[in-house]
Amino acid sequence: MKTVVIVGALDTKGKEFAYVKDLIEKEGLKTLVVDFGVMGKPDFPPDVTREEVARQGGGDLGALASGQHKDAAMKTMAAGLKAVVSQLYAEGKLDGIIGMGGSGGTSIATTAMRALPVGVPKVMVSTVGGGDVSAYTGAKDISFIPSIVDVAGLNSISRVIFANGAGAIAGMVKVEKPAAPTSEKPLVAASMFGNTTPCVDRARGVLEDAGYEVLVFHATGAGGRTMESLVSDGYMVGMLDITTTELADDVCGGVFSAGPERGQAAPRKGIPTVLVPGCVDMANFGGIDTVPEKYRSRNLYEWNPNVTLLRTNVEENRMMGEKLAVAANMAAGPIAVILPLKGVSMLDSQGERFWDPEADRACYDAIRKNLRPGIQVIESDLNINDPEFADLCANTLLKLLQKEPQRS
After folding, report:
1. Residue 312 buriedness (CB in 10 A; 0-12 / 13-18 / 19+)
2. Which domain covers residue 287, as residue numbers?
3. What angle do CA 265, 286, 314 make, to 5 degrees?
4. N or C: more exposed end of the chain, with fewer CB within 10 A?
5. What value does the mean pLDDT of the chain take?
6. What is residue 124's three-state secondary structure?
């Protein structure tokens, strides 16, 4: 029988967790409850006590229960829960996990969830679920359900929301997972955006014909972070980083930033890498009214009602070129930087809204100037979405892969 691990503070939310526990068990699943509350007594006996969680986190529950050092209690219980949950998964006692809580409980529960592999069902019913939860999800597949009302008692609304959470985790755990292929193909990561889709689609076909499975990640901040997390965890044998647009959002304060280290994971890992300044012509904001005042006089494009694109300028492109060079210089394995001299996106092509050869050149010059000797730079007199450019990227990566032993 499969097991759902339920994590939460049973002193303040015990009745709510008992309700969810009962619903999950009615679906024919086993439950295992882990208590990470530190104040009052639990409303019902857990399977893993708060004392054990505190011990695994390197703390003493008696000291934490005083309430004088809530920050220390949060850190200790988060570390302890992470250790407990990781152990349960390693022992085959966890097929899915669900938590409920406010911002504090969400922080503790998702710390443990992030320790689990991608694909393990994870559900978080949370008061912060309707906002930006990227800090809680990290690069993992945590499904958030907004609690609508606080996780504080059972009422006409909370009962429905909690039941939805129980149904979600039960369904995820019970559904039959696709069988793993008998002979797994080596995995290659590729970054894509709407403005580089033709390039990545064609390059993916070339790589798949050569026997690789290509995982495409949407360069929306979360997509880049997830991709690089999987690279760092050793899932990939190669990287086709055609769309490095998230650096534009990092430089300009856009909504799709993946952090200043975007692009560094694959070179640092030492896997064969093709690095392209794709879509660095655009930083992303929400609707037109959300664009910062300092950019209102710049070249803006309303991609759709919820996305406004800012054309990056010469100085911003110089900064991105320097960042790409820093990433490439970290390479512990084969790497090539490929420059599309006729534009880095659909919009950055002759006659289109973002066509700006001077800004593109600033990026390319910064890359060339800051690269360490020995890194291959290929200049192509094509737009990034020309079929020949896609073929160049894919075939360059294939050559780099032939220089490296394949890794599973």
Report:
1. buried
2. 187-402
3. 60
4. N
5. 93
6. strand
pLDDT in tens, 139-163: 899 999 999 999 888 999 999 999 9
Residue 68 has pLDDT above 70, yes or no: no
Q: Which amino acid is at 267?
A: P
Span 364-408, pLDDT tens digits? 999 999 999 999 999 999 999 999 999 999 999 999 999 765 443
Residue closest to 109 by CA, chosen among 92, 129, 91: 129
Q: Which residues lie below 8 Å from residue 88, measured CB to CB, with a gap of 6+? A: 5, 32, 94
In a domain, 182, yes or no: no
**Cβ burial 130-149 (10 Å sphere, 16+ → b, else e):** eeebeebbbbbebbbbebee
User: How far is residue 328's CA from residue 360's CA, in Å, rounded to a whole number?
Assistant: 18
- Look up residue 122 and give its two tokens: 């994870």
Q: What is the pTM of this model?
A: 0.78
Among the three residues 144, 174, 204, which one is the final residue of a domain in this structure?
174
Count CA within 13 A, CB hemisphere, residue 110: 26
Residues 259 and 327 in one domain: yes
Q: Is 105 helix (H, G, I), strand (E, B) or coil?
A: helix
Which amino acid is located at 202 in the chain?
Answer: R
Report helix, strand or coil for 383: coil
Residues in the chain: 408
Check whether residue 53 and residue 161 sit in a common domain: yes
